[in-house]
Amino acid sequence: MFIKIEMLLLNLYLKNKILMKNELEIYELVLLLKFTATPEGLTDRIEFYRDFLIEKGCKVMVKNHGKISLAYPIKDCDSATSVQVVFLGNGEVIKQINTEILRDTTILRSLTTRVKDPNGMNIFASV
C-alpha cells in the first residue's frame, strides 16, 4: 500500500515537472510602426515595449532600423518605422506581448520568431 502511494506521488511530481517546464529561449520581435512626424511618439512606443519585457524579467535589446518604404500599402501607409527587439523569454511572455501588440493601433505588422542559433546566447553576454 505504501509503495503504491509513493509511486503515485512520484508520477504526479514528474507530470507537474514536465508541465511546469518553462525554459527561457531567445526570441526576435520585428515591429512595423506607423511612421509618425514626432520622434518622441515613436520613442515612447519603443520604450513601452522594452519596459514591458523588462518588467516580465526578460533581458532585452532594441534596435531601431528607421524609416523604410513598404512594398505595398498596409492600412493606407506607404512607409513605416522598423524596430527589432531581441529578448530572452518564454511562452507566457510571448502571449502577453502579442496581446499588447494587437491592442496597439500604431503597429502595422509584427512578427515573433524563436532564434534557434546556439550561438545566440552570446548576444546577452555583454548586457
Q: How would you explain this protein's 3D organization?
A:
The protein is of the alpha+beta class. The chain has one domain: Ribosomal protein S6/Translation elongation factor EF1B (Alpha-Beta Plaits, 2-Layer Sandwich), CATH 3.30.70. The protein has three helices and four strands; from the N terminus they run H-E-H-E-E-H-E. The chain is globular.
Might you state the CATH topology name? Alpha-Beta Plaits
Q: Major β-sheet, in short? A: 4 strands, antiparallel
CATH 4th-level superfamily: Ribosomal protein S6/Translation elongation factor EF1B
* N- to C-terminal distance: 54 Å
What's the number of extended β-strand segments? 4
CATH class: Alpha Beta
Q: Which shape, going by the Cα principal axes?
A: globular
Task: For this entry, give a set of tags.
single chain; 127 residues; alpha+beta; Alpha-Beta Plaits; 3 helices; 4 strands; globular
Summarize it.
By secondary structure, the chain is α+β, with helices and mostly antiparallel strands.
In terms of topology, how is this protein built?
Elements: H1 2-19, E1 25-34, H2 39-55, E2 59-74, E3 77-89, H3 91-103, E4 107-114
Antiparallel strand pairs: 1-3, 1-4, 2-3
